[in-house]
Design goal:
Helices cover 38% and strands 19% of the residues. It is of the alpha/beta class and 304 residues long.
Length: 304
């Protein structure tokens, strides 16, 4: 699906090559999201620099619930523009302000910088709730692939550090185990877009020390205790090398007493649910089920 890059490229050149391929494929396979009331880029200070958090405001009057969205890309790829459609759909269908985080990418910014950036973005979102017309008591976090890993890490950080309180975590086809020890890594590691070699590559970019693979903020599946976390949605895909680690995380959450909606999308591979131009019915069902889970989480707080 993606062209093979020429040999000898630097990481920056590889990223540029991959981003061009992503933009071409997204243009062919996905569809633009709906119009929203407003999109604003905010500069947010973080340790050692600043990042952009882009907010998507839905139509209607607030205060709105808010969803902190963390994009995927193996910790080293991805821009806010690449994931614009998902944010527009979430804002529109779930009736929430979406705050999309442009966290710093590996290998220039290795672990723990990306999850710390995302946690800082969560704190910024809650601290600026009034000016964003957001209800600080109805905030969720979510993301896909590496973004799912970072979202799960943010949920752990919020629990461990005494807030901000989250009402939900939406983990789509998530990375949860950077030790690469789950069976589907080998079972689905070739021929389904995301490969075992690519996972090893991004893990090497992301971790300064291989021992960090067992840190729960890098591999949430390996956390000793998952109790006290917000209710979760965990989506996996049948032919995804990340399938088993996502499902293992969902089961561990359930075992810890966390309410979990878990669904394996049969016949799908990593990222295929966004290919609305190819599988419009499945893509529509996917985004609507995600949005329904967010709406239900926000409504449960509003009526409690």
């Amino acid at each position: 699906m993606f062209p093979t890059p020429p040999d000898g490229l630097s990481v920056a050149e590889l990223r540029e090559f991959a981003h061009k391929a992503m933009e071409q494929s997204f243009g062919l396979l996905s569809e633009a999201g709906p119009e929203v009331a407003a999109i604003v880029d905010h500069r947010v200070p973080v340790d050692g620099g600043e990042i952009t958090v882009r907010t998507y405001r839905p139509e209607g009057s607030g205060p709105f619930p808010a969803h902190l969205y963390i994009h995927g890309g193996g910790f080293w790829l991805g821009t806010l523009d690449h994931f614009d459609a998902q944010c527009r759909w979430n804002a529109t269908l779930a009736g929430c302000v979406v705050a999309s985080v442009d966290y710093r990418l590996a290998p220039e910014a290795k672990f723990p910088t990306p999850p710390e950036d995302c946690y800082t973005a969560l704190r910024w979102l809650v601290d600026h709730a009034a000016e964003l017309d957001v209800d600080a008591g109805r905030v969720s976090v979510g993301g896909a692939s590496a973004g799912g890993d970072l979202a799960a890490a943010v949920a752990l950080m919020a629990r461990d550090r005494g807030g901000p309180r989250l009402v939900f975590q939406a983990l789509e086809i998530p990375v949860t185990d950077l030790t690469m020890s789950q069976p589907s890594i080998d079972e689905n590691g070739e021929g389904y877009v995301l490969t075992k070699n690519a996972i090893a590559q991004y893990t090497g970019y992301y971790l300064a020390d291989p021992a960090d693979a067992t840190n729960p903020y890098a591999s949430p599946l390996l956390a000793d205790d998952l109790s006290g976390l917000p209710p979760a949605l965990v989506f996996t895909a049948e032919y995804d090398p990340l399938r088993d680690e996502g499902e293992a995380y969902g089961r561990r959450l359930q075992d810890a007493g966390v309410p979990v909606l878990m669904r394996r999308w049969d016949g799908q591979f990593h990222g295929s649910q966004s290919m609305a131009a190819v599988i419009p019915a499945e893509a529509k069902e996917y985004r609507e089920q995600l949005a329904a889970a967010l709406r239900d989480a926000y409504a449960a707080i509003a009526t409690s």
